[in-house]
What we know:
It is a single chain. It contains ten helices and ten strands. It is globular and about 55 Å long. It starts with 9 loop residues before the first strand and ends in a 26-residue tail after the last helix. It has helices at residues 34-47, 61-73, 95-109, 147-159, 173-180, 203-211, 242-251, 255-265, 277-284, 293-300, and strands at 10-12, 18-20, 22-25, 51-53, 83-88, 114-119, 163-169, 191-195, 215-219, 269-272. The longest helix has 15 residues, at 95-109. InterPro entries: AKR (IPR020471), AKR1C (IPR044482), Aldo/ket_reductase_CS (IPR018170), NAD(P)_OxRdtase_dom_sf (IPR036812), NADP_OxRdtase_dom (IPR023210). Belongs to the aldo/keto reductase family.
Amino acid sequence: MAMDLKHSHSVKLNDGHFMPVLGFGTVASDDVPKSKAAEATKMAIDVGFRHIDSAYVYQNEKEVGQAIRDKIADGTVKREDIFYTTKLWATFLRPELVRPALERSLRNLQLDYVDLFIIHNPTAMKPGEDLMPMDASGKLIFDTVDLRETWEALEKCKDAGLTKSIGVSNFNHKLLEMILNKPGLKYKPVCNQVECHPYLNQSKLLEFCKSKDIVLVAYSALGSQRDANWMEKDSPILLEDRILNAIAKKHGRNPGQVALRYQVQRGVVVLAKSFNEKRIKENFQIFDFELTPEDMKAIDGLNRNFRFIKLLFTVDHPHYPFSEEY
């Protein structure tokens, strides 16, 4: 069988499209200039990344889109070589807001379509321009939306050719089942993008997703950027883990490469975020070594169900996803 190089480091989704198993994440804290996202995205494409993950709420899609178009213009890639993901923010979950939200991302990107459009969070918030709508006391204002109706609106975006594939993010198995059991379901989610790393290996959710032919996509796979808005300061530093470092040393690698390779070997698509050129290069170099079954078992043993990103500001929402075990 001739090897299909285009898809050699890709996974086939349940709708027939292919997603590269290693993606480049573009989220950055507010103090990082948006221009950095453009520079880093260009570096990532030059290094070999073909899967670019962004979101409306990151507020950098103009810059990321420009970087992709520049790399198409200079002949490095064609549009069809790039797998681009954007996300539907929680203030746009009402069905009538879904397509306009995607169209706004497309205008920012100046692209005709995205490859993947996913629900960013299941916790609907009050619609409007404010990404974090707060009341006078500083509490988030939630919205009540039937996620099955949101999903139907995503299906229509796929039918309209605005996105090739549709999926979800931060869903637990019960929320996934609600979509999967929806009467008249036209398309299953192709993926569920969740926090996943050796301290939170999501083995139960991974099993569940595999049983439904849904790809698990890992964010915060290297631990997390230590952004005080999202995580507690005293959180453990994954890449300083003794066992990860010992395995890395044995393979002549760094602990980040081991953490990324671990996900790929267990059938998880993994996102790596860095705006540092050396690190971007290193993060891509995970296809020329293999972890042994003993290595994999040792890394599995690091799981402590520790979440860096708890999204506690949505804990009172009926769809808050992390009260369930998986």
